[in-house]
Design a protein that fits this description.
By secondary structure, this protein is of the alpha/beta class. Helices cover 17% and strands 34% of the residues. A seven-stranded mixed β-sheet has the order 3-2-1-4-5-7-6, sandwiched between helices. Strand 1, helix 1 (10-17) and strand 2 form a beta-alpha-beta unit. The longest helix is centred in the first third of the chain and has 8 residues, at 10-17. The structure holds S-adenosylmethionine (SAM). Residues 5-7, 10, 26-28, 31, 46-49, 66-68 line the site of S-adenosylmethionine.
Length: 149
């Protein structure tokens, strides 16, 4: 499993506890340090927004991304999903500026964007939701679960 822009790795820990080997990736070495020695989790301190795509050629049975968006690499990210693999992606979307940060459109999904990107990558949509949420705080969010057949 790949936990992309994992931060302190709350999802890495959940996945590892479920029996999956996890690669936890972030550019924040301090955050990754907290995952050292956790069974089934390996870490990689990588800049995901540089000229080179550091995960090129890798394949994962599952990809989890939450609260992170770097649009120029969305297609490259979905290409990492192996046949039979599942993508779970959730982050903020257009309209979130009314509730707080992120407010920069560069870091906000457009309406239907994850659905469109997943379809373009040949993934089968399992679930998609977008719009206003109250919890954990008021925000505009978008989420998809999709699989590569
Ligand atoms: C809001 S946190 C989300 C953390 C985690 N996914 C979660 O939901 O708990 C965003 C994460 O993206 C990481 N990040 C931001 N820019 C990055 C980059 N260029 N390369 C790698 N990670 C980056 C940050 O270090 C931070 O840990």
């Amino acid at each position: 499993m790949l936990d992309l822009a994992c931060g302190s790795g709350r999802h890495s820990r959940l996945l590892a506890a479920g029996g999956w080997p996890v690669l936890a990736v972030d550019r924040d070495a301090t955050a990754l340090a907290g995952l050292q020695g956790v069974a089934a989790i390996s870490t990689a301190c990588l800049d995901l927004e540089g000229d080179d795509w550091p995960l090129a050629g890798r394949q994962f049975a599952g990809i989890v991304v939450t609260n992170y968006l770097w649009r120029p690499r969305l297609a490259d990210l979905l290409a990492l999903l192996a046949p039979g693999g599942v993508l779970i992606y959730e982050t903020f979307m257009d309209g979130n500026a009314a509730y707080g940060k992120p407010s920069n459109p560069e870091f906000l999904l457009r309406p239907g964007e994850l659905r469109a990107v997943a379809a373009a990558a040949g993934l089968r949509e399992i679930a998609f939701v977008e719009g206003y949420v109250e919890r954990p705080k008021s925000a505009m969010r978008q989420a998809i679960c999709a699989a590569r057949e």
